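User: Please fill in residues for this 142-position structure.
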């Protein structure tokens, strides 16, 4: 796989504009999230998730760890899409929302939204899946 310098050379040598888009995938261990909160306290979640995401990750008996892991995986996958285009994203400016049928989607805010616009992204698709021990997310940007 070509490194950043090789990709830059390909982009500059190509007369066509570099197409926007990208894909990001991330997998997160539920145990790693639980351990992190155990070490750092719940305040660490405030640095990673919005208040709406935290509310969506709560169940009848408190935090649902697989939901938390899924949202963190989705944010990291989104950061990878933007990173592949030379942009950065802030954790709380990438928000995982739920649609009317419970489907997850990505909503960008602030500087992260501007970063996506700079690299020509007009939309993102998100899929999250989880089991007892892991969560995985895939983000497709276009």
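Assistant: Residues filled in for all 142 positions:
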């Amino acid at each position: 796989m070509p490194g950043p310098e090789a990709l830059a050379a390909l982009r500059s040598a190509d007369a066509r504009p570099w197409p926007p888009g990208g894909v990001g995938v991330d997998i997160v261990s539920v145990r790693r999230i639980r351990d992190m909160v155990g070490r750092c306290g719940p305040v660490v979640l405030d640095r990673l998730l919005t208040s709406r995401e935290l509310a969506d990750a709560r169940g009848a008996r408190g935090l649902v760890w697989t939901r938390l892991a899924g949202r963190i995986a989705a944010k990291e996958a989104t950061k990878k899409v933007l990173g592949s285009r030379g942009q950065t994203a802030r954790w709380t400016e990438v928000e995982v929302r739920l649609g009317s049928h419970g489907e997850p989607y990505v909503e960008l805010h602030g500087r992260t939204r501007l970063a996506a616009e700079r690299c020509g992204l007009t939309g993102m698709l998100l899929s999250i899946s989880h089991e007892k021990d892991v969560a995985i997310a895939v983000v497709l940007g276009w």
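For context: The chain has a mean pLDDT of 91.
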